Amino acid sequence: MISVEEALGKILDFVGVLEEEEKPLLDGLGQVLAEDVYAPFDVPPQDNSAMDGYAVQAGSIEGASYEAPKILRVVGEIGAGSVPKVKVEPGTSVRIMTGASLPQGADVVVPFEATDEVDRKRTSLSEAEIGIRSSLPGGSNIRRSGEDIAKGELVMKRGSVLRPAELGVLASLGKGVVSVIRRPVVGILATGDEVLDISQPLLPGRIYNSNTYSLAAQVLGYGGIPKPLGVAPDEVGQLSKALCLALDCDMLITSGGVSLGDYDVVKQVLAAEGDISFWTVRMKPGKPLAFGTFKRDNGKKVPHLGLPGNPVSSMITFEVFARPAIAKMMGKRSWAKPSIMAILEDSIENNDGRRVFARVVVRKREGKHFASLTGPQGSGVLTSMTKANGLAIIPETTEEVKPGTIVEVMMLDCEDNCD
Ligand code: AMP
Ligand code: MG
Fold first, then answer.
1. Burial, 67: exposed, middle or buried (Cβ in 10 Å; 0-12, 13-18, 19+)?
2. Which end of the chain is more exposed for a tag (fewer CB within 10 A), N or C?
3. Nearest 5°: phi and psi at 189?
4. Ligand 1 within 6 A of 84 CB?
5. Who contacts 88 (Cβ-Cβ below 8 Å, separation ≥6)?
């Protein structure tokens, strides 16, 4: 048996970063930037107001207070988007809106709340003037051009993952098309004489193909493009034919047929069609795993990850082995899932020296994380995965973990459930 790290290392050694592609900005969400982006201009492009108020000179409002306001002449008004035609001079002001370009001469914006504007509107005081009720230092409530990004600056490096904030920054630079590493196409082939497509009526002795759906959803969730290839029976000829459907994929994932049963033909076919490494991995669930490659016509090799058929095993081995491979192909540099330390509320036995990935629900109580088993841990009990938000990792060398022990939990869907 080899360790999880050894198996993952061999898989990652084989897969490489895919090619670049150009995409409209929004379509690049979740992908990795394949170019360095420099700022073609300052952001913001011009000095502008951070408040609705009056643009003035700091010197004009020195010593202003509620009781003794400084009265300034109003020489104009600037809305966002227009170019100021007026200038601010000592003793004058310009009414200005948030985001509007700062007029020449102004170095402070006094917010409406610090003026007597409302009182003027209510009374007969002239609106050609404004009373400033507080003194503000130069630069107050002004966003300087280039304050966020300076022209010529390296704003985003090749290798950055494009999240919503990155897309926003690129848009602020007027970048409508981005160069990104393309997403891998991952073929998904279920195997097994008993496995039936969900479009068919359920027949005696048969089960529905759930693996294709959970695996395709995992591929999608981690940024790949799933290509479901149906179900192949446990027969060498037909399985070989089905493998051809994956020739244009960047990776093939099969489920089932890698154990030691009479009909476990995946490894037989792989051995005949390409190179195969078949391993028993020191983990539970998910001991049997096949990894190999088969050749395309152009001589390029397609990596093939043969996951076990049990629905829980296939999902967990996907998390551990396929997800990092997809991330690497997408150009990501790190793929560790967030993990937390939690207090285990059940006991877990580990009597055959494998690394256990136990399905747990993590809940936070009084500032501490607690992990409890989702119930029966059979690798066919797929509903246990619907209850779990994490996988507690019990090391190979630990024979028993008692309630109250602190264990590492790899979080499965952190966005919703980490708190
Ligand atoms: P195998 O790895 O082929 O021995 O399959 C192990 C177990 O997983 C068996 O009970 C299979 O019926 C089940 N299984 C295999 N493939 C699928 C699938 N695509 N969907 C649901 N269960 C499956
Ligand atoms: Mg089978």
1. exposed
2. C
3. -120, 120
4. no
5. 55, 56, 57, 75, 94, 103, 104, 105, 106
User: Binning pLDDT at 50, 70 and 90, where does residue 298 land?
Assistant: confident
Residue 206 has pLDDT above 90, yes or no: yes
Per the prediction, the chain carries an average pLDDT of: 94
Do 113 and 129 form a contact (C-beta atoms < 8 A)? no
Measure the CA–CA gap between 82 and 110, rounded to whole angstroms. 20
CA 232 to CA 220: how far, in whole Å? 22
Contacts of 26 (CB under 8 A, 6+ apart): 167
Residue owning the nearest CA to atom 15 of ligand 1: 309
pTM above 0.90, yes or no: yes
Beta strands in 218-286 (DSSP E): 225-232, 251-255, 274-280, 283-284
The pLDDT value given to residue 63: 97
Residue 263 sits at φ, ψ, to 5 deg, of: -105, 15
Contact in structure between 288 and 259 (CB atoms under 8 Å): yes
Q: Residue 195: CB within 6 Å of ligand 1? A: yes
| Residue 288 CB–ligand 1 contact under 6 Å | no
| Residue 310 Cβ < 6 Å to ligand 1 | yes
% of the chain at pLDDT higher than 90: 86
Tens of pLDDT, residues 125-158? 999 999 999 999 999 999 999 999 999 999 999 9
- Per-residue pLDDT for 258 more than 50? yes
Q: Residue 88: what pLDDT?
A: 98
Ligand 1 atom nearest the C-alpha of 261 is 4
- How many Å lie between the centroid of ligand 2 and the Cα of residue 322? 20
- pLDDT of 415 higher than 70: no
Span from the CA of 48 to the centroid of ligand 1 (angstroms): 63
Token readout for 414 is: 């952190």
Most confident option among 167-176, 289-298, 377-386: 167-176
198 lines ligand 1 (CB under 6 A): no
| Helices 236-244 + 266-273 axis angle, to 10 | 60
For a mutational test of ligand 1's pocket, the pick from 255, 265, 315, 382, i.e. the residue with the most ligand atoms closer than 8 A to its C-beta, is: 255
Cβ neighbourhood burial of 297 (10 Å; 0-12, 13-18, 19+): exposed
Q: Please tell me the number of the ligand nearest to residue 195's CA.
A: 1
Binding site membership of 213 for ligand 1 (Cβ less than 6 Å)? no
* Ligand 1 pocket residue status of 209, Cβ below 6 Å: yes
267 pLDDT tier (thresholds 50, 70, 90): confident
